Amino acid sequence: MDKYETVQALLIPIWRGIPTDYKSRYRRKIWQQFEDNIRSAAYTASLSHFVSNLCSRLQVSLRTVDVATLNGIVHGGRDRELLRLLREEATIVVLMVRVENEKRKAEWARTLAERAQEGEAVSAWLAEDGLFDEIADAAVESEE
Do 17 and 95 touch, CB atoms closer than 8 A? Predict the structure, then answer.
């Protein structure tokens, strides 16, 4: 993995860990704020301090599944190289994270649309066969 991909893999879990209400509160400036905090936190000697500083500044709550990825990068022995990249090219790496985030959101929207279409098809099929009424009646009876 090259240094840009490594930094992107480091920052994506941090971005995902920023609380939704925090992102909403600073909606208009969140990406600039993310970039500024990355650049500022990168003025340290170790990636572990960088991650700790950035997470505390942005109120990040890391997902359990992301901890192993972050640990692998943080303890990978490339601190100096990656911190320099984070300081000098924060704009580029944040743009990379932003593009990846947009891809993920588009993929999620596609998945939801497909599921909605499948749900409509199943509902139409159930209604056509009269099964929907039987299922609905059973649900009502179980509630009573």
Answer: no
Angle at 60 between CA 103 and CA 38, to 5 degrees: 75
Contact call for residues 112 and 56 (beta carbons, < 8 A):
no
Nearest-10 crossing angle of helices 64-74, 47-57: 140
Which residues of the chain fall short of a pLDDT of 50? 131-136, 139-140, 142-144
Q: How far apart are CA 35 and CA 123, in angstroms?
A: 46
Q: Which tokens hold the place of 106?
A: 């588009």
- Rounded to whole angstroms, how far apart are CA atoms 43 and 133? 64
> d(Cα 117, Cα 110) in Å, to the nearest integer?
11
pLDDT, tens digit, 9 for 90 and up, residues 37-77: 999 999 999 999 999 999 999 999 999 999 999 999 999 99
Q: In angstroms, rounded to a whole number, what is the distance separating the alpha carbons of residues 50 and 140? A: 55
The amino acid occupying position 87 is R
pTM of the prediction? 0.77
Residue 60: how many CB atoms within 10 A of its CB?
18
